[in-house]
Every structure is written in structure tokens, then in C-alpha cells.
Amino acid sequence: MASRILILSILVLNVALGCSGNQFTPVASQGTVEADNDGQIQSEYMSSEGGTTTTVVEQDEPEAPSHQTDDKTDNQAEDEEPGDEVDLPPSEKDISGKGSLKPTVYYFPVINEDKKKCTPEWRIRDDKGKIMMTVCESTRAACRLQGSCAIVQKGKMKTFNIVGERDGVDRFFDISKETCRFGFGVKASCLDPFYTIAADLSIYKPGDVIYVPAVVGLELPDGSQHTGYFIVRDTGRAIKGRGRFDFYSGHISWRDDENPFKKIGLTAKTKRFEYYRIKGDRAEMIREERNFPKLPEEIIEH
If pLDDT is split at 50, 70 and 90, which confidence band does 25 have? Predict the structure, then answer.
């Protein structure tokens, strides 16, 4: 009898201990909180307009990308040239934070109005209000959305970059003769095709370097392979929040199936990608390689 009581006591104790270790998920009135696979916390809540807003929190002590290796042989170290280091993934000492990014892609549209069936009615004005060109409404919308554009009328092409908004109207300036022929970002920095991202400047600074492992090795229009490193050179009206990045693809539309970024899903609304914020000597090396804030000597054109 005593042995049966002892066995029952042990069973009750095990059940009690097992129940005490159970976890429960609190019900949030505004949305849900969940852990991403990389261990960071992602909070998703409903905005006042009824849409969903996602905020991503970077880890304080990030680890290097999983494909990072430091076990090089002496011969490998001797064979590497200094310039090869920009192609290497970052080590832990190069990283200041990590997160999950929400991507979009923008580009520099070239619009031939000689081939469009529309009546030019919208005026492109400079910062002082002077009319520089009268264009179709669809052309105006494209230039406004992308921030810069080229317009062909009567066989001649002019390129424009947005300055800002004055009295509720977007103002532009002519960049046809400027050295930044793909357009200007923030702080007069040149947009560098396939290596520029637009970001929220309340969180990131112009010149910040971002590493995206999923882009490493991506073949670009000139046949080269992407290093995975990007530089913050731009911002945008809809680019808000941590990990919200807009990737610049030069003259190739985000709708074009040949756009390298589209091929890996950077144009898909539901896709999320791991990213790392780079600091120190590695970040400075990347800025020098891409000649920030100007254009590099070798530009990827299409």
C-alpha cells in the first residue's frame, strides 16, 4: 500500500512540474507579437487607416551571417588582394545590428512621350516655379513616384530630379548635364544603380552600409556579381520604419522580369530578408569602393 501511495505521489508531482513549465501567449488587443526565426521580435499591429504596419527590432548582439568563415589557409590569405575584401561577408566585429527587412524596388524611368497617345497638360516646374516642360499626367505620376526620370519629346531627352514640394506641388531640377546622371539622393549624393537603398533617415544615416546575404552572388546586367553590400543614399515618402528599404535598380523597371532584384523576390510584398548593419573599417571600405557620395568609376548600366 505504501509503495502505491509513493508511486501516485511521484506521478502527481511530475504532472505538477510539467504544468508549471507550460507557456501561454497573451492576447494583444492591437495585434500580435511573434518571434522571427533569427530570434528577433517582430510586432505587427493595425494602423489607424486599417492597414498593417510592421516594426522590426534589431538585435543588440548579432552574430555574423551563417555562411561567414574565418578558417582560411595561409595560401588563401596570401593569394587574396586588398580589393577582394569588399567581396567577403562581414565578421562579427563588423556588425552593429541585424534585422528582417521589408523590400521594395524603385528605378529611373525613361519615358518617350513621342510614342504616347496623350495630351501633355501637366507642367514640370523648377524650385522657383518656372515651367521647364509640359508632360502627360502618367509621366508626371511616374516622375513623382520614382523621384527622378528622363523624358523624350520631339526627339530630345531631358532628365529631372525632384527637389521637394512647394505649396503642395512637386518641384524638379534639370540634371541633364549633371555628373549624377542616374539622379540625386540625399545630401547631394549620386544614386548608384543596384548598390543604393532608400531608408528612413530618422533611423539610418546617409552613408550607412547594409549587408543583405540573399543578394550575394546575384548576377547584374553587366555580368558582375553582387557583393551583398548597399549604401543608404536616398529616402522616400513611404519609406518609414526600421528595416524598410527601397532598392534602386537604375533604368530597369521593377516590373521587368529581367530586373535582377525581381528575380530574387525583392519586389514581392510578402517577402522578408535578413540584413546586417555594418560598421567600422568594413563600412568605410565599402564606401570607398563605391566612391560615396559620388558615382564609382565602374557603373552598372543597362
Answer: very low
pLDDT band at residue 297 under the 50/70/90 scheme: confident
Under 8 Å CB-to-CB from 83, ≥6 apart: which residues? 289
Alpha-carbon torsion, ordered 261, 263, 265, 269, to 10 deg: 80
pLDDT tens-place string over residues 188-204: 999 999 999 999 999 99
What is the pLDDT, as a whole number, of residue 146?
A: 94
Q: Is the pLDDT of residue 232 over 80?
A: yes
64 confidence band (pLDDT: 50, 70, 90):
confident
Q: How many CB atoms lie within 10 A of CB 29?
A: 5
3-state SS string over the chain?
CHHHHHHHHHHHHHHHHHHHCCCCCCCCCCEEEEECCCCCEEEEEECCCCCEEEEECCCCCCCCCCCCCCCCCHHHHHHCCHHHHHHCCCCHHHEEEEEEEEEEEECCCEEEHHHCCCCCCEEEECCCCCEEEEECHHHHHHHHHHCEEEEEECCEEEEEEEEEEECCEEEEEECCCCCCCCCECHHHCECCCCCEEECCCCCCCCCCEEECHHHCCCECCCCCECCCEEEEEECCCCCCCCCEEEEECCCCCCCCCCCHHHHCCCCCCCCCEEEEEECHHHHHHHHHHCCCCCCCCCCCCC
Whether the Cβ atoms of residue 56 and residue 100 lie closer than 8 Å to each other: yes
How many Å apart are CA 18 and CA 9, to the nearest integer?
A: 14
Instruction: Supply 121's cell numbers.
Output: 497638360
CA distance 254 to 244: 17
